[in-house]
Amino acid sequence: MSASERIKQRMQALDLKAVHIVKLTGASKGSVSQWVNGASKPSGRNLIALCKVLQCQPDWLLFGDESAPSGQSEHGNASWLGEMEPWHSQTALSPDEVELPFFTEVALSAGHGMVEVRENHGPKLRFARSTLKRQGVDPGHAACVKVSGNSMEPVLPDGATVGVDTASTTVTDGKMFAIDHDGMLRVKTLYRVPGGGLRIRSFNHEEYPDETYSGDEVQQIRIIGKVFWYSVLV
């Protein structure tokens, strides 16, 4: 099944027509027509908006990932999980808000990895406590970092920001995780393989083919945490 067929499947399930998609996503009629007809695929902000409307995850919509159900999503953009904005120590928090550190000089590579990492606690991002609770995230075990590289495009373009739950280190097939791969920090989609191995997958399959590691080789890979949120500027 192609991406356009999955789009039409969700539209039918939700009783949506193209005119509804245009109105709800803010995309042009031409763009929506191309998505439905398979002439092009949504990306960036349009992809996020479309997935919100169709109530599905980007990896399922684009690639048919069976591990990504077409109902609820455990990691979405800010409009799904709550608004976020940079703030400083002088900015008062509301009773339902909590601050998460934003490591401005930590770049989790979406390419082949980064070896040298400097942690600089710069601006903070604020989240609603209810948002984190709904995702099962303890604020004391979460942080936001910047992604670099193009291997996770179109879902995570270069410069995207992700929220990482460092208390969630058990691999769930098809979910995005931040990992320390033998000294390289990366953000990838992970899958378990027989024998205790691990498959590392990028959304940009053409430039970054799957990497499969045996049970012995996987010892050099440390799971930092699961990506529970991401934000994209285009």
TrEMBL record:
SMART domains: HTH_XRE (SM00530)
Source organism superkingdom: Bacteria
CDD domains: HTH_XRE, S24_LexA-like
Gene3D superfamilies: lambda repressor-like DNA-binding domains, Umud Fragment, subunit A
Residue ranges of every copy of the HTH cro/C1-type domain listed in the record: 7-61
This protein's UniProt keywords: DNA-binding, Transcription, Transcription regulation
GO molecular function terms attached to this record: DNA binding
Keyword DNA-binding: yes
NAD in keyword set: no
Pfam families, sorted: HTH_3, Peptidase_S24
Name assigned to this protein: HTH-type transcriptional regulator PrtR
Protein source organism: Vibrio aerogenes CECT 7868
